[in-house]
Structure formats: structure tokens, C-alpha cells
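User: Modeling request: complex.
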Amino acid sequence: MDGQQVKDWEYHCIEESPPACTAACPVHVDVRGMMDLVRKGDFKTAHAQYSRIVPFPGIVGRICDHPCESACKRSEAGDAIRIHELERTCVNAGFDAAPFRVNKQLARKRIAIVGAGLSGLTAAAELLIKGHAVTVFESKSAALDRLRRYNDTVLPATAIEADLARFGNTGLELHLNEPIDLPSSIATLADDFDSIYLGLGPEPVSALRDVLALTADDRIAIDPLTFATSHPKVFAGGSQRYGAGYSPITSLQDGRYAALSIDRLLQGASLTANRDTQGAQPTRLYVNTGRHAPLTAIVPVDPLRGYSQEEAIAEATRCFPCHCLECVQVCPYLEHYGSYPKRYIREIYNNETIVMGNRKSNRMIDSCMLCGLCAEVCPEDLAMGDVCLSARHGMVEKGRMPVSHHDFALRDMAFSRSDAFTLARHQPGFAHSKLLFYPGCQLAASSPDHVANVYAHLCANLKGGVGLMLDCCGAPAQWAAREDLFAETRAAFAAEWQRLGQPTVVTACSSCFRMFTDHQPDVKVESLWSVLERIGLPQGALSSVKTLAIHDPCTTRHDTAIQNSVRKLLGQCGVTVKELDGPELTTCCGFGGLASFANPEVTNKIVDKRVAQSDADYLTYCAMCRDNFSRRGKRALHLLDLVFPGNPDPASRADPGFSMRQENRGRLKRRLLRDLWEETVNEPVTDIELIVSAEVQADLEKKLILLDDLRQTIRHGESSSEKLLDNKTGHFIASFRPVSMTYWVEYTMADGRYTVHRAYSHRMQLG
Amino acid sequence: MSEKDSVAATPELLCAKCKLALAPSKVTVSYLGNSFPVDLLRCPGCGFTYVPESLAVGKMLQVEQALEDK
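Assistant: Request completed. Predicted assembly structure:
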């Protein structure tokens, strides 16, 4: 994986962006965290958390000008959360804020602060905490003089004193009644102290003109990022910077960030580096407020006293809280791992770059269906499939891809590409093909009759010769990041396609369609559904069905023309189509990305979630989707079940299972060779006739064991006599290791037939 | 895989070829270049070794997966 690409992906996941309230707060109070604590009734921790960010919680909690509320996203679904009132409840609850803890610093510096207002004392607190020696000069007889003019019911003197008590044993030197004659004193202070902070209040300071650069209205010119003045040692802020309209939280901000600059200056660090998140700003966090029902604010019974704790809990419960998680909410795979893409991307990158230890994310990487739904709902179009496929390529290149994740699917693909299934012919009686019907290996596996019927219909209604190609398009190899196998498959197709005269490919499979359009642009490809719309349905197609809920295969997500053709064909079949979430928000059936082989637990969740969306029978036009719905107990039809009806209740058709899928492919080829090309092809005769109960068959499916594996194993046991006899049950137990798996089969024999009682396998080798 | 995975002798299990009861024996199992000794039931005659399903889909599977993630 490319490191820069990883950073780019991470940037596009915005879940870690701050909520709007926190972003709008000049000092970034963790409002969402506080709301969560209040909702739980934990006012003590909420107060402690608030006090860690706000040095004077008793004061600010009562008089904050709360810009957070204007930004609150709840206002898009009812009233904004009364954050200020909730903070007030927390600071009214009677908890003491812990005294400031002073760091022990070797390079302790001396700082003078002029003005014991909110900004000056905030700077003092910050610098004391960082371990510096701070001396405050105040002309009035008490610190925070301006705040003492508030009505006692709004801000009682006891709250001010309680906050000032946080300075405790910090060693703060506070000089009251000590007016500083600034013009003459700045030079002296600059000599005596390492740095100076001026928190002078809102009044113009024209007298400082000869010492500091001033603005047009005679206030100190202050850099809004660093709070530096024209004097290298002097910083300033508070209402001197922002003017007359008093904003306690802005004064607090100025003191905090000026203190940061002073500390950086004293350490010789850059004043400007890494400050891009400082102060109030918009957030990138997306919140789908439409998901939430509007709620009005809780009104306190006694507005003067504010919220009772019960009222506060009710109000905090209105907080959503703000998260994006759009993808996590629609994808059970992303939900399964308990986090969100930004973290997953980091984990996946670490998984690739780890030198020693376990690669813990392998299975997560291989559990993604690559279906694109996450990108569809993501405000930043981030596709986890791109991340996972890239990671899979890295795993394969480094020889780190767990064999067991894709082995079965790739062996199944090898079967589909073997002589047992592959076929590429011109239409009988034709020496050329204008079109080439490419049904795809899974339609042949699921409904071989449909393939034969479609081919006959195409041959009867299209001129110029309709060739037929039975093969696998290579999608499993592409999903498994087996570039070698995929390239080989595409090259083999290209050679046959050239031999047949480069006909237009007509495919019945959405994944095949995707593989052709995405990876073989020189091949003209058309969906079977568009062709059927053009040439018309065969006689005998159902004309009156009922309401069916349509599930578009995830590989057609953006193929509007195909989606429309399918809906038109359904209309001709008399079907009333019920949309689930619409084609663009369709889900995967679990086969995509080979996820169901790496993590059936997750893909079953995905299918089950989809199945629960409607009680109606489902209609789809992907054989794998239909069979996976059926496997999970959902009545489901393939579009061809309507076009070529035969089964009186096609929605009840069972998932054929892996063994029958291969069997069906082989039989289809032999049948077509016999019926259409009039070749003599015998059905293979097996020497091992099996009896497998439905229960055992279901177990074999889960274990990815084919009936042919059983036959090989029993054949080996019987021919070599290398088998066990369990005297207790009378069962024979044989084992066989054809290549990389050892199969064990427990069976009994009667009348020349073998009843299979159970089977299992392992990869580990004996000896 | 450790000693605790050993399998107790089951006189019911006979090697069909040698007509001998299987007996516990130390066997080496290997995967992806890693080998482990494990006690399994083995025919004293021909050496046919039995892997019970509980081991194959339990501890053996766990170790296979752990080794694949190494």
C-alpha cells in the first residue's frame, strides 16, 4: 500500500472530526463527552472533565457566551441542545474543581502578566501548570474585578473565589492595587521577566504608541494566531484584542493560546507550527440529522435556578450525539469490527507493514465484499473496497495471504475454467458469431435450464450467429487479488473471443458485465436484460405474477440502463415492483469480494439484514444473490424464473450448494454438446454412489467439502484398505489428501452404496 | 499443540487393514513450515494416524489460522 494513498484515504474518513459544538468552542470543550456523562447522570465526572479544559469552571459555566449552541446540529431537528444550561447544572452541582497541578520544569522561566482578568489569569494558570514562575500585576483591589459586577444570582462571589482557589499552592504572585505605568514599565518588565502578557481590557491604549504597534483604534496590534505583539517578548489578548462586546470564552481562549506562544518562545520553538486546529472553526464532521425526529428543548421549571438534575438528564438525552458513521450504519461488515474506516485503514496499513507478530487484520481485509455501498453513502466518497483490495494485493505480493480464505473459491473457479465446463462455439450451423452469449459460471451452476432456454431464445431472435461461451470471467481471481490468475483468465478469454471473430458479448451475470467493462474495454459487452428488452420476451413468459421486492446486484449499482431494462421486463411480466432502498443503495449478498468464504458469520449478517427489509418475495437478476437469499431462508426468484417459467413455485427453489453447482455446470456443457452440436457425450459413471442426508449435506456446505471430495476419500480408503473401523458405531473412517487438504469421511456401506455420516477436513499435514 | 491435546486410547477404533486397535503415539503435524508434536491415535502396525473431528475443527484449525496470520 502506498503511504500517501493511505493518508489520503484516512483524510476522507471524517468520523474523527470534532462535533460542531466542540469545533465552535474557542477552547474546544468536549461537549459531546459531557452530554454523554450528563445523560448517564454522572455530573461529577462531567464537572471534572469540564474543569480540565476550562480553568475557571464556576465562572465560565455560569456566564459563557456559548457559541457552541449556535453550531449545535440538533437545531436541524428541533431546538439546539441547551449546552450552556447543562454546563451551569454541572457547576451548580457542588463539586470542587481540583487545584492546578504544577509541572516541575528544569527550565523554569519568569513571566509577568498585567491584568488579572479572565484572559490574564487563564494565561497565568496555563503557564504555572507548565512549570513557570508567574507574577500578576492588577491595578484593582481584587482579581477578576469585571466579573464581580455580575448580578449575584448569575455569578455569585463564592463561585469566583472557589475558582481562584484553584491557584492554591501554585506559587502565583498576585500584586493587587498595583497600577502599571505601562509605557515606562514595559522596558523594565522586559528586563526583569522572560516574557510578558498584557490583558488590559477593552479600552484604547494610545499611551503605548511608542512601545508597541497599535491598531487604527489605538488598541494593541495582536496576531490572532500567536497573540504576539510588535515587541518580541510581549503578548496580549482578551477584550483588548476583540473589542467591547465581552466574551468570557474568547478571553479564556486568548489567555490559553497566548500562554502556549509564550511557552514556545521560551523553549525556542516555532510560534506558528501546528496551530491550524486552534480556536473556533467549522468542522468536516457530517451528521445526518434527517435520521432523527425533531425534539424541542427541555424547559426548566425554575428558569432562574436552571435545570434540575432530572431536567438536565432529559435535555442531554436529546443530544444525538453527533457522529458520521454513515457507512457503518449501512454495512454490517464495517459494524462488525466495532470501529470506523479511519481506524480500519490505519489497522490495515499496520497489518501490511508489521515486521514481527500477528497480522491481525487479515480476516477483516478479506471480509469486505468490495460492493461500494460505503462509498455511496459516504459524504467523502471513501470506498473501503479500494482499501481492502489494495491491501489484498499487498498480501498476495508478499506471500502473506492466508491460503484458507480464498482456496475453495479459487478451486471452484479452476473447475469452471476446466474442460469440465468451458465451451466456446459458434451457433450450430454458423461459421461466425455476431454475438456471443456468456451466461457466467454461476447462472450455469444455479439454473442450467435457464442457460439453455436463453440461448435458444437468442438464437431464434438474433441474426448473424450467436456463439456460446461457457467459462468463468475471473472475478474470483480479481477479488482475491490474484493478478496472475486474473490476467491469465482474461488472456484466455481474449484468445477465444478473437477466434470467434470478436463478437459482442451478451452476459447474464452482473459480475461478468463488470469484469468486461472494467478490465477489457476493447470487448463490446451488453447485458442480457437490455437484449431481452430489445428482442422481446419469449412466448410463455409469465404475464401476471404479483408484487416482488427488487434486489439489484451490487455490481449493477451504477448501471442505470440495466436497472431500467430489468424493471421494464418485470413490467411486461405483470410484476408490481417494490423498491427496497433503490438500486444505488443496494447491498451485496456476501459473494462479492469472496467475503462469504473468508467470513461467513459477517456475510450471513448482511444477507439477513437485507432479507428482513421486506416480507415480499425477492426478485433479483444475479444467480448468487438469489441462491444466497434462498440459503438464508428467504423466498427469492431470478428474473429468468419469470421469463422461462417451469417450476410452479420458483421462489421456493433451494440453494443448490457447492457440489451441485459444479455438477450443474458439467451437465449443462454435456447436454448442450449433445442437444445442439449433436456430439456423442456420455455422462460420467461414478463408482462411488453416495447417500447424504440433508443434515450432513448442510454441514458439508458450511465446511466447504464437496461430494467429489467424499468420493475420492472413500475410493482411496476402499482401494488401499487404509481405513479405520469404529466398532462402537460400525462406521468406517477413511482419509485422503489430494493436494493441500486432508479429508476425513465416516461412512457405512450397504448394497454398493455409501452412506456418509460425517466428514471434515484440515490443512495441517501429518508426519 | 501441547500434550493436553492428547487423545485417550479407544479400543473400539481398529485399523481395518491390520486389525489392530489404535494406540496413543507421538506424531508430528506440520503446516506452513512449522511442526508440532502431538499425541494421536495410531495403528501400531501400519502407522495409520487418526485425527478426530474435535481436534481438526478445534485446536488444529486455530493453529492453522494463527500460522496463516504470522
